[in-house]
Specification:
Blueprint (H helix, E strand, L loop, with lengths): L2 H15 L23 H38 L13 H22 L10
Helix pairs in contact: 2-3
Amino acid sequence: MNGKHIFAAALAVAVASGCASNSKDISTQYVSPLQYKDYECDSLAMEMSRVSRRVGELQASIDKNAKQDKVATGVGLVLFWPALFFIDGDTPEAAEYARLKGEFEAMQTAANQKKCSIDVQQG
């Protein structure tokens, strides 16, 4: 490998690591179900529905951002290297998404412990 190939490979790795993640690749943040111990089943169902809607909104935005980053990376590596400056990486939405996924799981756990019959799907 000559110097140009090594530089190109290093640049590709650096750029790819800065790309935004797809929503499916974002780990769930742990949230304790204890914070929902005083919620009644109806309150849990309403809160789970609210969180589920927000997770869906964030998921769409995160996936759109990841797609845009991948396009900018492809254009930058193949055609026009200044396009690499438009790669955003993960946004604060990704952190909110991880936290809300954790909250949803904590509410599911609390609902199961209370034997609530709630049919709300995450995102």
